[in-house]
């Protein structure tokens, strides 16, 4: 003890010595600058002292001497201070080595502020000395000024200033060296000559030599030896001229200094100018932002939630075109609506992020803000609607059970839809179609073979769209024709030809022109708006000149159709919001709205403004926010009162005049419908549609492209002062309360049953020992939030989303109010239904309570985290319940459960699910209330199980590590690397904490041995290992003929422990460099098993690197390692299930993209647990896994970006989809989206498919049906993949190619399920369906000449379609037909379509090895016909056979190149993303 102390004593002294040296050096450093600061002013003072009079010079010198004395005294004082400080510092050193000193006192002494005080005093003295020097300089300057005032400056010396280059150097030299002395000498000489002349006049004789006199003067006044007492005014001016001349002499210090000063001056001026410009730009931008603030809808306090502005900035920074990701990282988005911004705070907050923006970028930002301001209005409107529906749910939920009946809700929606007017039905969505009904509720023939366009989600969507397309095609054709026919003669001939042409031929010509519409639109894009205005003017003129009976005809229908679907047809510029806030940065002012109002309103009396309550989302999307605001700001005096009352009577007062109660009922949901007289109803629809047509014309009159510098300043000022141009702070007459239900949706309305039951268990003192375990279970829950779809009932989230999908975004709030009042009257539950709902609610609560209790009991029993319990030990403890009185009853429970089959000599293991099921069966055999009996059994087992505090702490730590492995899999973004990392981390941490060992570990997976099959059919490849063993183990292969125990573990399926590897003899060592004498330690090999108990790998753990001699694994460590292997297997299959689902989605998207053309992008998201924050409930996040753009090319991200809920205020439809597990139809940023959930087997959403259909309102019915087919097959594949990996269902190999491996099977699973669906649909066909196809036999010579040419061509095309598809199908099942005489002979080929035809099709395996067909010949028969051609033909059998042939072609091509075509879609470690695309040749085309 004393030695350690003596060794430690000098250390503080050495430290103090170092500190002492530092203090001295710092004091010297301070003193140096002080002295230099003194010397510099002194020299300057001496340099300037020669230029002042003698009196001033003496005064300055005396003051200098006085200051120098003070400076020396100060320096001596500083030295003395340093010496004193060093002495005090040395004296204090012994105090630092006293051992009995209190540590707190020692720390306080070490922290004394002596150093700070010392430097403060030194700094004060230095500042005082510097101040004295400054005062002396100021005094010198004042004396010089006084001397200058006494002297008269002679400006005659300025004549010496001349910058002529030839004499510049000479003149400067003379002025500097000679003339300052020569000029006074000459002056003295002249004065002396004048005296001599006077003397001569006075007859005084003197000897005077001017030369000698001048020489004497020059010698007496040589500036090198004598100092002149003062300068004359002439000399002083000459000195100034000399200094000015020196500046112009090149390569001199004065010249260089002058240039430097000039450069510095220019840079300073330039910098000041730039700063002024920046200030002006900043002020202009702030002014523009302040004006833009008024366009937002504000809360009652006139403020905006900060999270909304942060979302706007985040969305703008995320735009890849701007490359502002760095700015996005600086955003810290708020979690709630609490923080709010007023106008000034709004301006300052945005300005802090855009200080470095260029003008173009700022313009884009302002446009984005203007557009988001309008989007925010829609968000608030949607939120008002959702609040309305949420209150409706609470009103209808009389028993407060938390759910409503699904069938009753859909029945009421159907009734409301049927009793609505045709105009209102065009805005609502049909509740009898998908997504309101599920795929399982649609019959298979209807799902795959129904081609009735009237069953679209929007009523009569296809017909209206086709007529509108034809109208636009005719318009473009007329424009091109008018360009070609330039002369009046050509035009006259064309008119005559048009009159003589039959109407049918004109329609054919229009149809042909429609095919080229897209290319025509691109060529005529610049002049499109003007042509559309002309078209609208012609239609309006026709409408005004015809009688009212004519107005009710086709023109009215055409206007309605165009109003409903023009956003999917008319090619427009992207929506742009133009605002008056853009004045400062060359943006378009809102005064342009006023420029277009008068000419638009002057077209007719019926063209007033459309009230805000009947405005539709279509017109908003087409016109952009600028046009919408223009429509809403029309002068109210132009509206005809009668027409306005008609519109209000239809839409606003629908609650009383349209729907009323009646005596008839439909499932207890009755409603009386008051019919409107036909004439009055048609008049109302006519008025409404005319106003909608005016809205469309208004859109064409106001262009969307920005126009700059078209308005005068006076016009802008008038618009700013005009209050009618400001946006209303109300939405359809309702003010915003400042709250958003969307942000607090889960907090206010979602109540998880498990959290409720957990709180009840916490308050129950009987289960005190399980409280901590239950808390851990709740904290380790996978994904909190989200509702499961069950097909029977709706919870609040699902109910609100269903009603929101039904009414859509186009309808005003009055329609939602009407629907709400209708539901309140119609939703009536019977007494039996109420009782049933309460029983179901109680049953759900009891089920959740049971699961929590039994899971907590299982985890307490399994204290080592092995993941299983021994059935014998469970029975031994259970049979002691009530002293064995219930033993016989408990034995009966074993008859109803199937336990896993044990290996020979191995115990029967129960997993958590099997244990829970077993206990529930045991409880069901006992007498009494099941809930009470279960709690009694759990309490008995809990009290019987005795666990020490050490075991409890060890169990808690191990549960945390095991949860880390599973959590890594759930948040890895479909990557196994985090899973490997967490697995080895759990092993090493447990070995250090609970075993005091240093371990090494590696994971080996089974692979098929294709290269060396003689060494065994399978091999073990090491895919991951701990860091120390990576060079020796990683990517190494173990064959069966090599020694080792790993294959024994694989064959037996149980772990093997080798306590001492040096004595075993059958252990394979990967590190050959280790000597045999050093190969000491234990080895443990554990099998990795899937849910079906099939071994797929080995987890190996050893202690070869542990320096201890005795390092054997104890039983509790082995059981924990078994638990690690079990959790790793679950995590491994979780990642691979997501990978297989991605593979299925890629194939499904490729199939869909090749037969549809209106889908812009498809984005795939996965749901993952979000990061945990202290004091907050963790929410889930979305991972953007991949995105598919045009041509079906899919971009898969290596590190998928994460999307949080708080960043999606304007794109919350993704989280609505995952919250409800329902399909969501939404529009954002002028584009329409269809968000479809991918569900787990429990009904919760595991991912989302976001289909962006651009500006189209909806897909055509053909594409809409194809989308449903793709989603149904993908969802079925997800159910199958998840069911197989969880062990709920057994793997079913239908095709031969599925035996090639899991990855290969996932690549063809989509086509296999679609093939099964088609085969099942074909079985439902009858012989009559095929008999009608055999009648198609076209012979041109046999056709009557009276048949029109168009119909003849149609018959010929249909015949070729039927022949080619049937022939292609026959070549699959009868490949020998190609070489026979019957090939291409229809009469003989028809004989093969017999009663065995369908049986062979349904039993055909296109991937079988024995199948050999001519794919090229079949492709020629099938691929010559487009998807549209088959759909237009409208035959169910041809539809089935067409898809069946294409699927068979695809599967055959994939089986031929399985190794290259079917590969894992995930990118490698070195790639940031990868592109994936399926073979396109085998898929049906779009046209």
Model description:
The chain has 1487 residues and is of the alpha+beta class. It is 57% helix and 7% strand. Strands 17, 18, 19, 20, 21, 22, 23 and 24 form an 8-stranded antiparallel sheet that branches. A hairpin with a 2-residue loop joins strand 21 (1224-1228) and strand 22 (1231-1239). The protein starts with a helix and ends in an 11-residue tail after the last strand. Mean pLDDT is 74; it is low at 1-103 and 497-725.
List keywords for this structure.
1487 residues; alpha+beta; eight-stranded antiparallel sheet; six-stranded antiparallel sheet; 55 helices; 24 strands; 57% helix; disordered N terminus
The number of distinct helices, counting runs of at least 4 residues, comes to 55
Number of strands: 24
Could you tell me how far the N terminus lies from the C terminus, measured between alpha carbons in angstroms?
94 Å
What helical percentage do the residues reach?
55-70%
Strand percentage: 5-15%
Question: SS-based structural class?
Answer: alpha+beta
Q: What ranges have pLDDT less than 50 throughout 5 or more consecutive residues? A: 1-103, 497-725
Mean pLDDT: 74
Rg measurement, Å: 46 Å
- Globally, the shape reads extended
Instruction: Outline the biggest β-sheet.
Output: 8 strands, antiparallel
Sum this structure up briefly:
The protein is of the alpha+beta class and 1487 residues long. Residues 1-103 and 497-725 have low confidence and may be disordered.
């Amino acid at each position: 003890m004393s030695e350690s102390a003596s060794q430690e004593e000098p250390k503080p002294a050495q430290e103090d010595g170092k500190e002492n040296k530092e203090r001295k050096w710092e004091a010297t450093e301070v003193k140096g600058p002080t002295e230099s600061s003194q010397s510099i002013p002194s020299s300057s003072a001496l340099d300037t002292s020669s230029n002042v009079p003698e009196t001033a010079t003496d005064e300055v010198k005396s003051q200098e001497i006085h200051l120098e004395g003070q400076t020396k005294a100060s320096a001596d004082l500083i030295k003395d201070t340093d010496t004193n400080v060093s002495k005090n510092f040395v004296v204090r050193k012994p105090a630092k080595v006293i051992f009995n000193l209190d540590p707190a006192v020692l720390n306080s002494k070490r922290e004394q502020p002596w150093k700070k005080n010392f430097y403060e005093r030194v700094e004060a003295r230095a500042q005082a000395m510097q101040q004295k020097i400054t005062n002396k300089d100021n005094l010198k300057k004042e004396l010089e000024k006084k001397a200058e005032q006494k002297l008269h400056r002679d400006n005659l010396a300025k004549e010496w200033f001349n910058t002529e280059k030839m004499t510049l150097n000479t003149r400067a030299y003379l002025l500097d060296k000679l003339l300052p002395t020569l000029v006074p000498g000459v002056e003295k000489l002249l004065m002396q000559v004048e005296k001599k002349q006077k003397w001569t006049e006075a007859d005084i004789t003197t000897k005077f030599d001017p030369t000698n006199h001048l020489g004497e003067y020059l010698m007496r006044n040589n500036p090198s030896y004598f100092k002149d007492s003062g300068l004359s005014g002439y000399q002083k001016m000459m000195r100034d001229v000399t200094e000015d001349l020196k500046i112009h002499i090149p390569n001199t210090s004065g010249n260089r200094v002058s240039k430097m000063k000039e450069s510095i001056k220019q840079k300073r001026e330039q910098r000041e100018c730039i700063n002024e410009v920046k200030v002006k730009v900043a002020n202009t931008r702030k002014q523009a932002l302040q004006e833009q603030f008024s366009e937002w809808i504000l809360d009652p306090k006139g403020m905006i939630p900060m999270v909304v502005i942060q979302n706007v900035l985040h969305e703008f920074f995320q735009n890849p075109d701007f490359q502002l990701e760095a700015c996005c990282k600086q955003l810290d988005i708020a979690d709630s609506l609490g923080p709010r911004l007023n106008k000034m705070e709004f301006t300052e907050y945005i300005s802090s992020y855009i200080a470095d923006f260029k003008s173009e970028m700022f313009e884009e930002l302002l446009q984005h803000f203007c557009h988001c301001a309008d989007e925010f209005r829609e968000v608030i409107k949607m939120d008002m609607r959702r609040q309305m529906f949420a209150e409706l749910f609470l009103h209808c939920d009389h028993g407060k059970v938390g759910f409503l009946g699904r069938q009753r809700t859909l029945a009421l929606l159907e009734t409301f839809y049927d009793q609505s007017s045709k105009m209102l039905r065009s805005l609502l969505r049909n509740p009898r179609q998908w997504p309101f009904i599920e795929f399982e509720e649609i019959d298979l023939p209807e799902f795959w073979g129904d081609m009735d366009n009237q069953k679209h989600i929007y009523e009569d969507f296809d017909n209206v769209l086709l007529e509108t397309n034809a109208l636009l095609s005719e318009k473009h054709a007329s424009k091109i024709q008018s360009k070609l026919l330039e002369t009046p003669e050509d035009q006259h001939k064309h008119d005559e030809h048009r009159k003589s042409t039959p109407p049918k031929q004109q329609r054919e010509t229009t149809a042909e022109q429609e095919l080229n519409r897209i290319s025509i639109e691109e060529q005529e894009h610049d002049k499109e708006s003007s042509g559309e205005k002309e078209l609208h003017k012609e239609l309006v003129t026709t409408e005004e000149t015809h009688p009212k009976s004519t107005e009710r005809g086709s023109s009215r229908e055409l206007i309605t159709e165009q109003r409903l679907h023009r956003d999917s047809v008319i090619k427009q510029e992207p929506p742009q919001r133009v605002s008056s806030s853009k004045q400062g940065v060359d943006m378009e002012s809102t005064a342009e709205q006023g420029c277009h109002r008068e000419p638009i309103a002057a077209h007719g009396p019926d063209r007033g403004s459309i009230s805000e309550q009947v405005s539709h989302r279509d017109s908003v999307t087409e016109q952009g926010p600028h046009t919408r605001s223009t429509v809403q700001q029309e002068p109210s005096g132009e509206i005809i009162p009668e027409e306005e009352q008609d519109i209000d009577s239809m839409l606003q007062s629908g609650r009383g005049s349209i729907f009323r109660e009646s005596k008839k009922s439909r499932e207890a949901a009755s409603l009386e419908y008051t019919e409107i007289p036909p004439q009055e109803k048609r008049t109302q629809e006519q008025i409404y549609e005319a106003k909608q047509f005016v809205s469309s014309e208004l859109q064409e009159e106001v262009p969307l492209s920005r126009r700059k510098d078209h308005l005068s300043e006076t016009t802008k000022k008038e618009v700013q002062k005009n209050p009618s141009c400001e946006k209303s702070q109300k939405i359809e007459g309702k003010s915003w309360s400042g709250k958003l239900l969307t942000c607090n949706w889960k907090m206010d309305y979602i109540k998880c049953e498990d959290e409720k039951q957990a709180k009840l268990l916490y308050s129950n003192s009987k289960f005190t020992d399980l409280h901590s375990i239950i808390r851990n279970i709740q904290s380790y829950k996978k994904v909190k939030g989200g509702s499961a779809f069950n097909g029977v009932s709706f919870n609040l989230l699902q109910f609100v989303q269903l009603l929101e999908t039904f009414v859509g975004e186009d309808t005003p709030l009055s329609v939602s109010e009407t629907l709400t009042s209708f539901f309140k009257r119609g939703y009536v539950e019977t007494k039996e239904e109420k009782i049933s709902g309460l029983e179901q609610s109680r049953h759900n609560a009891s089920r959740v309570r049971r699961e929590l209790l039994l899971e907590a009991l299982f985890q307490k029993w399994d204290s080592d985290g092995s993941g299983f319990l021994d059935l014998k030990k469970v029975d031994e403890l259970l049979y002691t319940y009530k002293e064995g009185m219930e033993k016989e009853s408990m034995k009966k429970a074993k008859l109803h459960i199937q336990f896993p089959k044990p290996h020979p000599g191995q115990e029967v293991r129960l997993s958590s699910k099997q244990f829970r099921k077993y206990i529930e069966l045991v409880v069901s055999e006992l007498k009494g209330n099941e809930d009470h009996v279960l709690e009694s059994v759990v309490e008995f087992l809990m009290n019987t199980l005795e666990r020490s505090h050490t075991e409890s702490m060890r169990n808690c730590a191990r549960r945390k590590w095991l949860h880390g492995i599973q959590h890594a899999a759930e948040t890895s973004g479909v990557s196994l690397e985090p899973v490997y990392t967490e697995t080895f981390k759990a092993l090493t941490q447990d070995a250090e904490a609970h075993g005091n060992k240093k371990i090494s570990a590696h994971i080996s997976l089974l692979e098929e041995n294709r290269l060396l099959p003689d060494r065994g059919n399978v091999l073990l490849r090491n895919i991951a290992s701990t860091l120390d063993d990576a060079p020796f183990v990683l990517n190494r292969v173990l064959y069966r003929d090599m020694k080792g125990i790993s294959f024994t573990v694989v064959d037996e399926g149980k772990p093997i422990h080798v306590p001492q590897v040096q004595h075993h003899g059958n252990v394979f060592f990967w590190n050959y460099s280790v000597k045999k004498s050093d190969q000491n330690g234990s080895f443990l090999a554990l099998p990795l098993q899937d849910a079906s108990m099939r071994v797929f790998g080995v987890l190996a753990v050893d202690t070869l690197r542990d320096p201890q001699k005795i390092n054997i694994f104890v039983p509790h460590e082995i059981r924990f390692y078994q638990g690690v292997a079990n959790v790793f297997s679950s995590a491994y299959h979780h990642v691979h299930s997501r990978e297989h689902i991605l593979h299925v989605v890629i194939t499904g998207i490729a199939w869909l993209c090749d037969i549809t053309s209106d889908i812009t992008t498809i984005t795939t998201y996965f749901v993952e647990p979000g990061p945990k924050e202290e004091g907050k409930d963790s929410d889930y996040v979305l991972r953007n896994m991949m995105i598919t753009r045009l041509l079906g090319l899919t971009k898969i991200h290596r590190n998928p970006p994460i999307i949080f809920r708080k960043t999606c205020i304007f794109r919350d439809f993704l989280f609505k989809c995952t919250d409800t597990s329902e399909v969501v139809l939404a529009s954002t940023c002028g584009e329409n989206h269809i968000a479809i959930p991918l569900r787990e087997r429990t009904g919760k959403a595991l991912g989302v498919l976001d289909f962006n259909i651009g500006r189209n309102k909806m897909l055509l019915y053909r594409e809409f049906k194809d989308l449903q087919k793709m989603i149904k097959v993908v969802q079925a594949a997800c159910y199958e993949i998840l069911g197989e990996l969880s062990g709920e269902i057994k793997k079913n190999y239908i095709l031969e190619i599925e035996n090639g491996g899991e990855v290969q099977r996932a690549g063809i699973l989509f086509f296999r399920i679609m093939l099964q669906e088609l085969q099942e649909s074909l079985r439902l066909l009858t012989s009559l369906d095929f008999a009608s196809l055999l009648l198609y036999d076209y012979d041109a010579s046999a056709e009557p000449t009276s048949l029109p040419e168009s119909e003849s061509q149609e018959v010929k095309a249909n015949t070729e379609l039927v022949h080619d598809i049937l022939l292609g199908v026959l070549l699959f099942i009868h490949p020998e037909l190609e070489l026979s005489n019957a090939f291409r002979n229809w009469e003989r080929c028809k004989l093969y379509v017999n009663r065995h035809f369908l049986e062979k099709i349904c039993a055909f395996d296109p991937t079988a090895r024995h199948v050999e067909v001519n794919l090229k010949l079949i492709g020629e028969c099938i691929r010559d016909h487009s998807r549209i051609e088959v759909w237009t033909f409208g035959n169910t059998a041809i539809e089935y056979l067409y898809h069946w042939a294409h699927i068979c072609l695809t599967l055959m091509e994939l089986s031929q190149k399985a190794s290259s075509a079917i590969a894992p879609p995930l990118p490698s470690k070195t790639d940031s993303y990868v592109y994936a695309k399926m073979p396109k040749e085998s898929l049906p085309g779009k046209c």
